[in-house]
């Protein structure tokens, strides 16, 4: 690096070994000694919270984050992001490509992390107030339809293909409210019917996750990142599982593709077929 | 009343499309044409554009689209942010595809690349429809504090504009309405010392060839490849992990002081 140029950080500091400026002896996260102290005293969700927020979470917040992390860890093999990862696994692609595929596909505005971002923006502004949501949905922000992201096709945080809120979504909210009562998550749980009426659709896991993450103090950008991050375990294990099963046991939709403008086989001139070539 | 999940039930196991299909061991249909016969002579750029848009382009247009990549974004400088990802990949001894994919994804950036390109073509198309483009320019400045396709980080002058404009002129494609308007907007912005950048010119040229913003976004997504991959290859033959390494003291820490958990 050019002498004098540095990386600025409020998150991380290092003390070098006396005899090697490129090897850290002590690493601190927001002032806490990670390998000397945090590793023994903190749980994973506490450390995750510290990394994102720069402060230790109160115990009930750490428990709420942990419960959300469990809820998000595996969306299951029908989820589009996990399916992307399985396609890497089944073809024998690299491990990184499986997770990159899950991240890319799971990033979108339909069931993905950018939907969480958009929903978190509304939760941060309107809370669980049904009138605020209704006004936002009636006059959506410009970036919902004029952006390099594809246009929003359903209210962010709500389910386009269900008539009722899924049991796992309600169970997730219940489990979070149990350890973190009195906040936005509880307001959403208790006022869900009003919001669903405003949205014209049932609450989705993206909406529940957005509300809980906003409740925990995360910004919409942080909520987007955490949603991407926390769903990776499922993508990883399903990719590995399909790698083991192999492509013969994986759907190819052999008869599923219906081509509407098939020109048909090209007539091969006599003597120009494969037989002639061999 | 049908349940809301009815569209999924109807789509299960069935994908109707006019895009194409592989007939195993026999042939490939590509947007209604036989890839291995009808489309076999096409240059890759023409096939790419046909695949994205479903439309055919003249040889001059195809050449322009290819030269836009060559002249605009094929810089083999590993300090540039997306290229740097590829160089880091080479330095960390990851694979070429992983480095290229990551760098390509990173290219969809706000201050350059994908987001900037999308903004530029959306703006110039909107400006052509506007009654008074100057009013639109002022509105963009008021709302976004910049006009997509104008101004440039690090340096004000864009060295890529003269060669791309020369190329477009030689191909007879430099006189479209979007290109004329792009220079008109530059004259409006001169007071603010904002000059057109390559993003603005390329977007205007593409708009004049009929590309919609979403089509342009797809076309530019692979544009940086000729700069990205050499950065990976070059870093991969340097010593491992040695790409601009940081000393511990290179982290300029601004957070809380040391404290106990």
Describe this structure in words.
The complex is a heterodimer of chains A (278) and B (261). Chain A has helices spanning 34-41, 44-53, 59-73, 80-90, 95-105, 113-126, 130-138, 167-179, 184-190, 192-199, 205-215, 220-230, 232-245, 274-277, and strands spanning 7-9, 12-17, 20-29, 32-33, 257-259. Chain A is globular and about 75 Å long. Chain A has a 3-stranded antiparallel beta sheet. Chain A has 2 domains: 12-53, no CATH class; 59-240, no CATH class. Chain A contains 14 helices and 5 strands. Residues 272-278 of chain A have low confidence and may be disordered. In chain A, strand 2 and strand 3 form a beta hairpin. By secondary structure, chain A is mainly α. Chain B contains 12 helices and 5 strands. In chain B, strands 2-3-4 form a 3-stranded antiparallel beta sheet, with no helix packed on it. Chain B has helices at residues 6-11, 44-53, 59-73, 81-91, 96-106, 113-129, 133-144, 161-170, 177-189, 198-208, 213-220, 225-236; strands spanning 15-17, 20-23, 27-30, 33-34, 251-253. Chain B has 261 residues and is mainly alpha-helical. Chains A and B meet through strand 1, strand 2, strand 3, strand 4 and helix 1 of A and strand 1, strand 4, helix 5, helix 6 and strand 5 of B.
